[in-house]
Write a structure and sequence with these properties.
- The structure is a single chain.
- By secondary structure, the chain is an alpha/beta fold.
- The chain contains 15 helices and 17 strands.
- It is globular.
- The N and C termini lie far apart (about 45 Å).
Length: about 425
């Protein structure tokens, strides 16, 4: 028998959020052993979008409050909430709408907008796997004594699944964020983790977001908090908690290659509550064989990563919701770099999705090529709907894409709610 010490993941489902957070800290060794007096503590919630707490897009403000109150027991010098909102989003607005700003005021802690900080350090990434040889990060963030990662568990269009590993993407400003999306996002995300590693991860699984999250989430009641020093281990157990097949999430494979955390479940010990006692199946429509999901279209996705397959799902279903699906069914959609495109395909009706499809331009120079690895979430459906490239560059994201997403949202929301009812109704039956 091996004497190797197992990686601990704490799981709590207590009557209140505060009790669950306290329980997790206690199971991890106690907050006074984790945080020394007089230290600076940064809390990194997920507050990337201006969405109310009940949508489960952002970390539940009551989870943030509970962590603040727990950390205060250690008598730190300061507690600061830190976030860089998504591209095109205002961080301070996200704090306000999510309810996190109210918590900060009530608990007497500072709100910090990473995107507004001009004092940046150009940090070298050793052994980088993307093209991020260096990452510009705020000096203040890098010099903090503790970084506590506070993600919410949710399905995610560009990653299939979002939790501890994904949340750290919110420590970079827009320029780096955009750079990450112009290559392999998973690799870039791991590179950022390697230079800005949270030392404590507390996961909000109170009301995880299922469905077509983050833009159209369907919250479900789970009522749990998870915690670990290891972001990979806690993400794996979070997947188990809601029935997500981790094999369908590419970033676990990449994290195994990079050594950022524990990927073997045999090396993980769950303490506190039992996963099976807290289990709630989550609807994640981003997983499965996408090649035959839309038979009215020719969809070629041999070699596509989980991120691009997830984006296929949300974009093709969006076309259905807005009424453009049948009108554009003569289009061919390609994702992944192992496809054979038929010779008779009309380039004007050929959409190449992602950087790995760029090679097909040699034989199909007039095709619609959407850049990114993966591309930004709505570019595929908008390009198909318009019959021309929507690239998301320059001011297009704020001037066209986000307003259109807002305009399409009512019918899309109704469509998602109908699909959610079908899924959860079948689970109950």
């Amino acid at each position: 028998m091996s004497d190797k010490k197992k990686t601990l993941v704490a799981l709590a489902k207590e009557p209140t959020v505060q009790e669950s957070v306290t329980k997790v800290f206690d199971l991890m060794g106690g907050v006074t052993n984790m945080i020394k007096p007089g230290t600076t503590v940064m809390l990194k919630p997920n507050a990337g979008h201006a969405s109310p707490a009940d949508t489960s897009v952002c970390t539940n403000p009551e989870v943030v409050r509970a962590v603040i109150r727990e950390v205060k027991k250690a008598n730190p010098k300061s507690i600061v909430i830190a976030e860089a909102a998504a591209i095109g989003c205002d961080t301070m607005e996200c704090y306000e709408v999510s309810g996190i700003a109210d918590v900060a005021r009530e608990e007497g802690v500072e709100l910090y907008d990473i995107k507004a900080d001009k004092d940046l350090v150009n940090v070298a990434v050793r052994g980088y796997r993307s093209n991020l040889s260096h990452v510009k990060l705020p000096r203040r963030l890098m010099e903090a004594d503790h970084l506590i990662n506070l993600p919410i568990l949710k399905a995610h269009a560009s990653m299939v699944f979002s939790c501890a590993l994904k949340n750290i993407k919110g420590v970079v400003q827009d320029a780096v964020h955009l750079q990450m999306h112009q290559q392999n996002l998973t690799m870039a995300m791991m590179d950022v983790w390697s230079v800005c590693h949270a030392d404590i991860n507390i996961v909000d699984a109170i009301r995880p977001a299922s469905g077509y999250s983050p833009h159209t989430p369907v919250p479900i009641e789970v009522g749990c908090i998870l915690g670990s020093y290891d972001p990979v281990a806690v993400d794996l157990i979070a997947c188990d908690l809601v029935g997500i097949d981790a094999e369908a999430v590419d970033y676990f494979r990449v994290s195994a290659e990079t050594g950022l955390g524990t990927t073997n479940r045999d090396d993980i010990e769950v303490v506190g509550a039992k996963v099976e006692d807290c289990y709630k199946k989550m609807w994640v429509p981003y997983i499965g064989d996408m090649s035959k999901r839309w038979p009215e279209y020719q969809v070629l996705c041999d070699g596509a990563c989980s991120s691009c397959q997830a984006l296929l799902a949300i974009n093709m279903e969006t076309l259905k919701a807005i009424g453009d699906y049948e009108r554009r069914s003569d289009f061919t959609v390609v994702a992944g770099g192992k496809n054979v495109i038929p010779d008779d395909v009309d380039d004007r009706k050929l959409v190449l999705h992602g950087n790995c499809t760029r090679k097909y331009l040699k034989d199909h120079p007039n095709a619609i090529h959407i850049e990114g690895c993966p591309p930004s979430e709505p570019l595929l459906y908008m390009s198909i709907s318009n019959g021309e490239l929507v690239h998301g560059k320059g001011g297009q994201m704020s001037e066209y894409i986000r307003p259109r997403m807002a305009a399409d949202q009512p019918v899309w929301r109704k469509y998602v709610e109908e699909q959610a009812q079908k899924f959860y109704g079948s689970q109950e039956g």
